[in-house]
Design a protein that fits this description.
By secondary structure, the chain is α/β, with parallel strands linked by helices. Helices cover 35% and strands 10% of the residues. The protein has helices at residues 2-15, 38-45, 52-60, 75-84, 115-129, 151-171, 189-198, 217-230, 300-308; strands at residues 66-68, 92-95, 134-138, 175-180, 206-209, 238-241, 266-267, 273-275. Its EC number is 3.2.1.-. One of its GO terms (molecular function) is hydrolase activity.
Amino acid sequence: MMRALALALLAVVATAPAAHAASPVGMTDGFYVDPNSNPAVWVRDHAGDGRQAAIKANISSKPIARWFGNWSGDIKPAVSSYVGKTGTKLPVLVAYNIPGRDACGGHSGGGAGTPEAYRNWIRAFAEGIGTRPAVVVIEPDSLADFNCMDNAKIAERTAMIKYATEQFKAKAPNTWAYLDAGNAQWVPAATMASRLDSAGVRNVRGFSINVSNYHTTAASTTYGNAVSGALPGYTKPYVIDTSRNGNGHNGEWCNPGGRKLGTPPRTGGGAEMLLWVKVPGDSDGRCGKAPNVDAGKFDPQLAYDLVYGY
């Protein structure tokens, strides 16, 4: 009798769902400011540079997402260590390691070597967060960057992203995860809604818009509402990357001139949250105003120009 009862209790525990999901915003006190972001490190190391004060006041002191990819080493301890440093503040992380990353753009190529390697990586990413509060943007551009991929590659990528949503749902219950949905002028809203649905957006909080791009918050909000409204039988909230959209989009996406910092991170603002996902001052690639700066590398002149709209 006692043995049967014990076995029954074990069965209940084994099948119990993950801890009840809570709002990471409610669990924390504002967004985390990363003291080791690229601009923060540059500010510390260049006290005598004439651009330092402006970059410190306007960029390095603001909450900026931390990107994780194949450069991050063993991903579970890397993520766990980062989230563990944030105290009562809410960290924003970006998972950026899909195989064939930036397949059509080419400037940020790389990613996990195989779908199996990616599944192991993204599972460990979610495990690294665990029950702690966080916001995660999942694979920028990955659902928009289909135009140079065949149907088999598209299906393979969609399956990987859906697996990612399942991992965050199961292993990071207090994380708000957002599947990336490109930007306001990339993929028609109804098409993107179908892609998000196929990729498991039901499993996560919502989707992200304008990551590493320049479209205005107003244009992004219009697009986000259209995407959400086109989802089949349900809606989802979304977040907007406002890191470089202060002067809007001029038709160029790779280190264009005349762009400006946007609204600093906050909840609300037309979307669920306005975030600085792209690190202001990090290059888009060897192009535009920074032809000799690799994608993801910090350039102080790019950062300084964003402060003033140069």
